[in-house]
Write a structure and sequence with these properties.
Layout: H1 12-20, H2 25-33, E1 39-40, H3 41-47, H4 53-65, E2 69-74, E3 80-85, H5 87-90, H6 93-110, H7 117-122
Antiparallel strand pairs: 1-3, 2-3
Helix pairs in contact: 2-6
Length: about 120
């Protein structure tokens, strides 16, 4: 899928949804936002077991193309590739934190459980 170079949006939220929309991108960004340091593809796959490897790779490429994350390749054997939030991605931190906080409250209110170890530290 080739992304358009220029685009007109009806409202700013439409631009946000263009970049962050879909089933997996917010989950990927939340995992990159929590915890120390960059994450390898395998760590993201383990954190989001329902996502296929193909879709994870595609979503990571799109987020990188949109400037939200950075991909770093280390020249070693076997090759090591890590992902982290870019400067633009870091500007989403407060939004990602608020989404997590709201989700924690919603889970508690519904008396559900969360398997997120990061979340349970704050509860």
């Amino acid at each position: 899928m080739e992304r358009q170079m220029t685009r007109t949006f009806n409202i700013p939220a439409e631009a946000t949804l263009e970049v962050l929309g879909g089933k997996w991108k917010l989950l990927i960004l939340c995992h990159l936002n929590c915890g120390p340091g960059p994450k390898r593809t395998s760590e993201l796959k383990k954190a989001i077991p329902e996502i296929t490897q193909k879709v994870l790779t595609q979503q990571l490429r799109e987020l990188e193309e949109d400037g939200i994350i950075m991909r770093t390749v280390y020249n070693q054997v076997p090759p090591k590739v890590v992902y982290e939030l870019s400067e633009l991605g870091i500007s989403l931190k407060s939004i990602l934190d608020q989404l997590s906080e709201w989700g924690e409250q919603y889970i508690r209110q519904r008396e559900w459980k969360s398997s997120c170890s990061e979340c349970s530290k704050n509860a």
